[in-house]
Structures are given as C-alpha cells and as structure tokens.
Write a structure and sequence with these properties.
The protein has 169 residues and is of the alpha/beta class. The N and C termini lie close together (9 Å). 35% of the residues lie in helices and 15% in strands. It is globular.
C-alpha cells in the first residue's frame, strides 16, 4: 500500500519578505503568502487528499488550514515538521550571516536529518495507503527529501513558498 506524500512549503511570511531568519519562530503570512495559499487551495480543490499535516508553527498551520478547507479536513500538527532551529541566528538578517561562524546553538544537521527520517516513518506508519499533504518549511522539507532520496542536502533544490513535491512512501 503506497502512501503519497505531497510535501509543501508554507506561504511567504513577513520575515521571508524581509530576509529574516525565522527558524522556530511562529511567523505570520503576509498578503502574498495568503494569496499563494488560496491559489494552491483553488488548484487542489478537486484533488484527492485524505490527510493534511502541518508543522506546529503558525505559518505552516495557517497555510495548511487554507488548503484543507474545501476538503473539510482538520489540520494535524507535528513538531517533526518544524523548521530547523537556528539558535542565536534566529531573528537576524540573513545576508549579514554570510561570513559568521555558526553558533553552537544551531540545530545540528544530524539532528535535522534524524527528525526528517522520523517524519517519513511517522507518515508511513500512521497513514498507510493515504494521500497526505504536509505543510512544512524550506529546510526541513529539504531534509525530508534528502533522507527520502538518500542524497545530501545540497543536492536537493530549494523549495519556493507553496511549492509542492510528491514522494511515494
């Protein structure tokens, strides 16, 4: 029984637009992000979706709620899909971080990839044979794909806001 995972990145946020490192901050969709989520909802209104999952961060929940509405589905949240914890880089202007030494409080790549693997296992075990749409974040979604395809993070193309990638589990 194949489980289909539609991995989606949340809509654009105020911090995305200002190039601020959000990490595990809740985040707020801006007007463009709300529009992106509504456009995706309209495109997927008649596609079969059995379950809608989201990171437990507001920007993902809000995106997922918009997408789930025409399907009459509740959004199930999981901390496994949270964005990478950027520690003391959180809240900083991304271009200013280019040459900085990474602080010790940034979530390790090993932990991120482990969490991504746990997410894949959770979806396979909990929703066998279902079509699962999961709204996460740029880096955790990249990690999920890296684990799935057995590739390095650098080999996975960046996901744009409200882009979808399909994985057959």
């Amino acid at each position: 029984m194949e489980t289909i995972l539609y991995l989606v990145r949340h809509g654009e946020t105020i911090d995305n637009a200002h190039q601020i490192m959000q990490g595990q901050k809740q985040g707020e969709l801006n007007e463009k992000g709300l529009r992106q989520a509504r456009e995706f909802r309209d495109q997927w209104e008649h596609r079969e979706i059995d379950v809608v999952l989201a990171s437990d961060l507001k920007r993902s929940i809000d995106t997922a709620s918009i997408i789930a509405a025409p399907h009459g589905l509740e959004v199930v949240t999981t901390p496994l899909l949270r964005e990478r914890d950027w520690g003391s880089f959180t809240g900083r202007y991304i271009p200013s971080l280019k040459n900085e030494v990474w602080p010790d409080d940034v979530e390790t790549l090993e932990n991120l990839l482990s969490r991504a693997g746990e997410f894949i296992a959770y979806v396979k075990k909990t929703y066998p044979g279902k079509k699962v749409l999961a709204v996460g974040h740029g880096i955790i979604n990249k990690a999920v794909q890296a684990v799935y395809f057995k590739k390095s993070m650098s080999e996975i193309p960046r996901m744009m806001n409200v882009e979808v990638r399909e994985l057959v589990l």
